[in-house]
Design goal:
The protein has 991 residues and is mainly alpha-helical. It has 48 helices and eight strands. It has five domains: 204 residues, Rossmann fold; 49 residues, no CATH class; 198 residues, Tetratricopeptide repeat domain (Serine Threonine Protein Phosphatase 5, Tetratricopeptide repeat, Alpha Horseshoe), CATH 1.25.40.10; 196 residues, Alpha Horseshoe (Serine Threonine Protein Phosphatase 5, Tetratricopeptide repeat); 79 residues, Winged helix-like DNA-binding domain superfamily/Winged helix DNA-binding domain (Arc Repressor Mutant, subunit A, Orthogonal Bundle), CATH 1.10.10.
């Protein structure tokens, strides 16, 4: 192989710059991506060498991810990186706080134990965060002496806990002297690969960067061959190597190793080239490689126990495979293949019978090690894997449950869920399974459901708890069944099946009605109270929550008490008592914080923020969301995507549009249920504001697949309002009406959620204002629109009673629209509505009102008065980046010949191709020939861009034409213009 690294100086220089930043207290994570054999490991090895030899030298630790299967080896590369520290009794470990050592003890044998349950408990979702915090504390301590370089290879095989820890590091690194570099095969990342969402998230982080490693070019390949051969290659050899290896360094080396002089036909593939080298080894060396291929990373003792070779034969075989550059001997005494492709080739060549024997031998060797050192999560998972791969079902079942216990103890719930899933797969195949593992199948199913729930996989959580319920029929063990029904209800709610979830929880509550006050009653009743609150049934929720609090106090269940206070708080706010409600929510948050139950804490913060937002205190709500995100991040590895979307929602309302867009979660991540609906609706809101109507439509159409199944007004109301607003912009009044009516029908069914009703009804008044105006434009009777608008306005007035600033703002907007319904758009009413939104610090809503105020003045013929609100609306639109609103203001100015000081509106400019054009003598509206052409295309439904392409004019010029046509016809929208054109036959001449 080449004695030096070729063609990678740019990448090394970038790595060294990142390390220099880390040395200065600016930590980061670097990702090294490349195809198999392109030289990732070689580059990292050279970088590590330079880091150790630097001035000052860095401390280097690292490990690689192991391909045993998703969810088997928790924290595999982290354990490999830290094991040498424990073995060498590093003094930094001794200086760590006792609590930190206790958390690390579960990962690093010899540092002390941790007390942990065998499955995730109600308060266990913060436990993994303590492990992460302990690791970060250790990294910080190691970096105090020397800059710390943590190298993790092959993260495309990383377990879910390692991926979560990398995400935690990216968010948590601040001023530590730490650099993390992680490599992965870019060609392994299929569309659903679990690493993709992580990379998408981290690429947006200031602490992360990505380096793509490309194959060598032809000149670099010549340099590599020169280094290997000791002299320049002849052109023929260079051509063959380039044609065959395409600049892949490993393939080039293996091709030369298989046929050094370059004569003859080289092996057709890299795997063939690798096998040529392996088959030249002795029988003992090949046997050793087969053991190592299945064991991945083994030390001398494990190799001896698993291979059966005597000491002399083992030493000789090890020397041979190391000297052949097939196996690498690590400084800590462990052996592994120099490249993963080498291991894969050997593993694929093992015969089926040999494979089972090898796995059994490795399982026995690992069990011997576990008996000596203790069976931690890493060893336990390895034992379970090898027994399962060997086909020993009884031992695989027992080992899988034991490994799941060990994974839960280090809070690696994704890995625990996978191991329990395997155990359940084996259950019916193993006689006396319950006696063998010491528990029953129901318990394993419940644990698997809880583990999947802790990982956020709600669909699998539902599947497993349903299987458990089948084994606990009604009347058999009511307390146990009630516990399972609560887990099922939670899963159903998360999957957007709200009414069914409440039915499930009520079934559980009814089944233990005669049992007296008990924990199951407190839990189920508090959960139902919270669900009813989310449905806007505040009176019912208040009653249930109050009763649940008393039961929870009796049975001393703080968790149920906190949930009930959460529901009680929002219900009080919804019924108008904001101060009492927010006080209850603060109590709920304090209980969740005390229990370290981050899910309930995030829920408390989310509900408190939403209550404040709906009460018109949006800036305070935004502060609450940020506080909740900070506390959640401190307690667990995730701040919570729900809080991130709330941050975006409130920032957007306050006019912080760039910040809102930056806080939105990654589009790569997979979402389900209510989380997906909320995300889609917020994306639609932002797209509508920016004027990206196609994107808004896509998100609303996707949300429409799930919203009909929802029973939550927060989703039904937002979807109905957004859909109607988009339809209005497109001139589709009938569809807008349908969206509002459908949402109102769903929301008004037994709900007291006035905030969603008032928004929808106000949009309904706006729809009827457009309908009435269109009827007048077309000479038709507007009575129907007037009647519908009056009903909608009555709804708004009823919902806006009392001291409700947001509802009063919607009422002000609705009354302004009502004046338009009556054909007398009142600028003072529009100004009053704008002031109401401005008092709430919601600039976009205020700017929309200012636009209508300007239009109302224009109708009255007062262009000077119209210019003031038009300028205000335009300034806001441009500051926010509200594309549609900006175009509407400019269009209004162009139609009304409104001049804004220092602003180009197009009002005074004539389109270039209409210079000197006179209207046709018979043209009653004074349209020019070009305007007639444009009107024809408008009537055909063409956009401004399409009009420009058809007539070979600029899109902006087309926009000016359309604005002037609307003004001359006396209509507001393109749809109305088309209707007038068709009715009067103005578009027929150019057809």
């Amino acid at each position: 192989m080449s004695a030096r690294v070729v063609g990678r100086e740019a990448e090394l220089a970038e790595f060294e710059a990142v390390l220099a930043d880390a040395s200065a207290g600016r930590p980061s994570i670097a990702f090294l991506a490349g195809e198999s054999g392109v030289g990732k490991t070689r580059l990292l090895s050279e970088f590590e060498r330079r880091a150790r030899a630097g001035d000052p030298p860095a401390r280097v630790i690292g490990g690689d991810c192991v391909e045993l299967g998703e969810g088997e080896l928790p924290y595999a590369p982290i354990v490999a990186a830290l094991r040498p520290l424990a073995r060498q009794h590093d003094p930094v470990l001794d200086g760590l706080p006792a609590a930190t050592r206790a958390e690390l003890g579960a990962l690093i044998p010899g540092l002390g134990g941790v007390a942990a349950s065998e499955a995730p408990s109600e308060s266990d979702d913060a436990a993994q965060a303590r492990v992460f915090e302990a690791l970060l504390t250790l990294f910080d301590a190691l970096g105090q002496e020397q800059t710390l370089l943590v190298a993790i290879e092959d993260i495309h095989w990383a377990d879910s806990s390692t991926r979560a820890f990398l995400a935690f590091l990216a968010r948590s690194l601040c001023d530590e002297h730490v650099m993390v570099v992680a490599s992965y095969r870019a060609d392994e990342l299929h569309r659903r690969h679990p690493l993709r969402p992580l990379l998408a998230e981290l690429e947006r982080n200031a602490h992360a960067r990505r380096i793509e490693l490309q194959p060598l070019n032809r000149d670099e390949l010549r340099e590599q061959l020169t280094d290997i051969l000791g002299g320049p290659p002849d052109p023929e050899l260079l051509g063959r190597m380039w044609a065959r290896g395409e600049g892949n360094p490993l393939f080039t080396e293996e091709l030369l190793a298989a046929s050094l002089d370059g004569r003859g036909d080289p092996p057709p593939t890299l795997r063939d080239a690798l096998m040529v080298r392996i088959e030249r080894l002795s029988d003992d060396a090949q046997e050793l490689l087969r053991v190592l291929a299945k064991g991945r990373r083994l030390d001398t003792s494990l190799l001896a126990d698993a291979s059966g070779l005597d000491s002399a034969s083992l030493r000789a075989a090890l020397r041979e495979v190391v000297a052949s550059h097939i196996v690498a001997a690590n400084d800590d005494g462990w052996y592994s293949f120099r490249h993963a492709l080498l291991r894969e080739v050997v593993a694929d060549d093992v015969l089926p019978g040999e494979r089972a024997e090898l796995h059994l031998a490795l399982a026995a060797a690992l069990e011997k090690r576990a008996a000596q050192q203790g069976d931690g999560a890493h060893l336990s998972a390895g034992i379970a894997h090898h027994y399962y791969a060997a086909g020993d079902q009884a031992k695989a079942l027992k080992a899988s449950v034991k490994a799941a216990d060990a994974a839960d103890k280090v809070h690696a719930h994704g890995e625990a869920a996978g191991l329990l899933d395997r155990a359940l797969e084996l259950w019916d195949r193993v006689p006396n399974a319950e006696e063998l593992v010491g528990t029953d199948q129901v318990d394993l199913l419940r644990r698997a459901a809880m583990d999947y729930g802790a990982e956020g996989d709600t669909m699998k959580q539902e599947t497993f708890v349903r299987r458990a319920l089948e084994l606990v029929p009604p009347g058999s063990d009511q307390a146990r069944r009630a516990q399972l029904l609560e887990v099922l209800a939670r899963a159903q709610w998360g999957l957007n099946r709200g009414n069914k979830a409440i039915e499930t929880a009520q079934e559980g509550l009814d089944s233990i009605a005669d049992c007296g006050p008990c924990l199951e009653q407190a839990r189920l009743m508090s959960w139902i109270a919270k669900a009813r609150m989310l449905q806007g049934r505040y009176m019912q929720s208040l009653e249930l929550a109050s009763e649940a609090i008393e039961i929870a106090k009796t049975v001393k269940d703080k968790l149920a008490e906190g949930r009930a206070r959460n529901a009680r708080g929002i219900s009080l706010v919804g019924l108008g008592d904001v101060e009492a409600g927010t006080a209850e929510l603060r109590k709920a948050i304090a209980i969740a914080r005390e229990l370290e139950y981050v899910t309930e804490m995030k829920s408390g913060y989310a509900n408190l923020a939403d209550a404040l937002h709906l009460a018109g205190r949006t800036r305070e709500a935004l502060d609450v969301v940020r506080e909740g995100a900070r506390e959640a991040t401190a307690m667990t590895s995730e701040r919570g995507d729900w809080l991130a979307v709330m941050n975006a929602e409130f920032s957007w309302a306050l006019g912080l549009w760039k910040e809102a867009q930056a806080s939105m979660p990654s589009t790569e991540r997979r979402y389900v249920g209510t989380s997906l609906i909320y995300l889609l609706l917020q994306r639609a809101t932002m797209a509508l504001g920016l004027g990206n109507h196609e994107e808004a439509l896509l998100n609303l159409e996707r949300a429409a697949e799930f919203v009909p199944d929802s029973s939550e007004p927060q989703f039904l109301g937002a979807w109905g309002a957004l859909s109607a607003q988009l339809d209005l912009r497109e001139g589709d009044i009938d569809s807008a009406r349908e969206a509002v009516d459908e949402a109102l029908d769903r929301i008004e069914f037994c709900t007291e959620d006035a905030s969603r009703i008032v928004r929808l009804s106000a949009v309904g008044v706006a729809i009827e204002a457009d309908a009435a105006q269109r009827a007048r434009d077309l000479g038709e009777d507007p009575t129907s629109a007037l009647a519908r608008a009056e009903i909608m306005l009555a709804r708004v007035r009823a919902a806006a009673e009392g001291d409700r600033p947001v509802e009063r703002a919607w009422l002000a907007a609705a009354e302004a629209h009502w004046s338009r319904v009556q054909g007398e758009s009142d600028p003072e009413l529009w100004a009053r509505a704008a002031q109401a939104w401005e008092a709430l610090e919601w600039p976009y809503e205020a700017a929309l009102m200012r636009l209508s105020e300007a239009e109302a003045y224009l109708i009255l013929g007062d262009r000077a008065a119209a210019a003031v609100p038009a300028a205000s609306s335009l300034a806001t639109a441009r500051a926010l980046g509200a594309g549609w609103l900006e175009s509407e203001v400019l269009g209004l100015c162009a139609r009304g010949r409104i001049q804004l000081d220092g602003v180009e509106t197009g009002a005074a400019a004539e389109a270039e191709d209409d210079q000197g054009a006179e209207p046709a003598e018979e043209e009653p509206f004074g349209l020019t020939p070009r305007e007639r052409q444009v009107l024809t295309l408008v009537a055909d439904g063409k956009t401004n861009r399409e009009i420009g392409e058809t007539l070979f004019i600029a899109e902006k010029t087309a926009s000016v034409h359309v604005s002037r046509i609307l003004s001359k016809l006396g209509v507001r929208s393109r749809t109305e213009a088309a209707a007038v054109a068709h009715r009067l036959g103005l578009d027929a001449a150019n057809r």
